[in-house]
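Dear H.,

Thanks for agreeing to be a second pair of eyes. The structure we're designing against is below in token form, covering all 362 positions.
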């Protein structure tokens, strides 16, 4: 059995909202067990059944070996999304309708499920995404069917890389030193707030998808929707809206690489923060998040201090330095937790036991 214990402590500052602290403690448990004869230890073959609602609300029930999800239409894309391809010959930009790309996106908010249900005829669907916090699902390549003509899928545990998270505090630059933010009177907290996000995938991460741009967009959508579901557990809930999805096919000046090919996280994060301040395209979003698969390393004062899962500039959402970076292996969703963690830092969250969360038990 895979058991999830999710704890979040967030101290957030937003325009017109006073500094507040919020705490959420959720305990969820899910069970997926291997069947006899299933030789692949990395996953389980299942034959999902999708039941359609008789009402005109697009709701569905997904049943997988007794495990059920109550699915509703979901959204994470802005009405108009900017797609960017950064190549050696420049950056190609295209605006697309978000509703088209997320037309098959569904969610179960109680079980943190984020899924694309793509109809393939005869009442069957190709299912891709996260069925809960701990497991993901994808169609089997051999198109195997059950005796009931249901398509075979693979459920696999999400392999989260062990490691530490990092946060940069007191990020400043000349512009912010000169800037004096006006005093804003306290107002009632909103029911929820939206974090407009510019999502970037690094060179290796982008290359994994080859020329399949739609697959890369679909993964970015599922990835950030899963992050959004976690942030919606806060009080008030925070929701991600993807305004731009950018894939790097050529190295950009803001990417700083170590001799071993890993991304130097401190230097790259600083450069990303500057990009978010100076680039007309990147400054439009509330935050900028980059997912990389090549590895992250901390090089400080010429010394190698080891790797990290991610890093963010604390409390800089909607301000100068509004950037974060994290590890993720393409199509595995291994970096979803890292992304949620680092974006929480951008929203001014402390690590457990530090700052405003000093008394929080781990």
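And this is the sequence the design step returned. I haven't edited it by hand at all.
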């Amino acid at each position: 059995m895979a058991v999830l214990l999710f704890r979040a402590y967030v101290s957030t500052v937003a325009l017109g909202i006073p500094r507040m602290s919020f705490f959420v403690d959720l305990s969820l448990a899910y069970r997926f067990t291997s069947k006899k004869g299933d030789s692949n230890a990395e996953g389980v073959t299942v034959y999902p059944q999708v039941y359609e609602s008789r009402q005109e609300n697009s709701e569905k029930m997904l049943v997988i070996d007794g495990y059920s999800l109550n699915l509703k239409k979901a959204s994470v894309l802005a009405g108009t999304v900017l797609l960017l391809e950064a190549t050696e010959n420049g950056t190609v930009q295209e605006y697309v309708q978000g509703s088209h790309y997320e037309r098959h996106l569904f969610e179960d908010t109680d079980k943190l499920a984020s899924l694309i249900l793509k109809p393939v005829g005869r009442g069957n669907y190709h299912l891709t995404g996260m069925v809960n916090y701990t497991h993901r699902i994808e169609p089997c390549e051999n198109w195997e069917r059950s005796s009931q003509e249901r398509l075979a899928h693979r459920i696999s545990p999400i392999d989260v890389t062990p490691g530490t998270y990092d946060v940069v505090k007191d990020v400043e630059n000349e512009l912010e030193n000169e800037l004096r933010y006006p005093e804003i009177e306290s107002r009632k907290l909103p029911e929820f707030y939206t974090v407009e996000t510019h999502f970037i995938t690094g060179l290796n991460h982008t290359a994994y998808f080859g020329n399949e741009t739609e697959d890369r967009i679909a993964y970015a959508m599922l990835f950030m929707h899963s992050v959004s579901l976690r942030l919606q557990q806060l009080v008030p809930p925070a929701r991600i809206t993807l305004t731009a999805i950018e894939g790097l096919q050529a190295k950009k000046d803001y990417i700083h690489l170590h001799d071993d090919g890993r991304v130097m996280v401190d230097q790259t994060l600083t450069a990303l923060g500057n990009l978010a301040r100076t680039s007309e395209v990147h400054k439009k979003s509330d935050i900028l998040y980059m997912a990389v698969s090549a590895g992250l390393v901390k090089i400080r004062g010429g010394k190698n201090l080891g790797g990290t899962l991610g890093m963010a500039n604390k409390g800089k959402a909607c301000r100068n330095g509004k950037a974060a970076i994290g590890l993720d292996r393409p199509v595995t969703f291994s970096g979803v937790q890292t992304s949620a963690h680092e974006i929480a830092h951008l929203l001014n969250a402390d690590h457990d036991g530090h700052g405003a969360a000093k008394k929080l038990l781990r």
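Two observations from my side: The chain is about 15% helix and 40% strand. The mean pLDDT is 82.

Warmly,
E.
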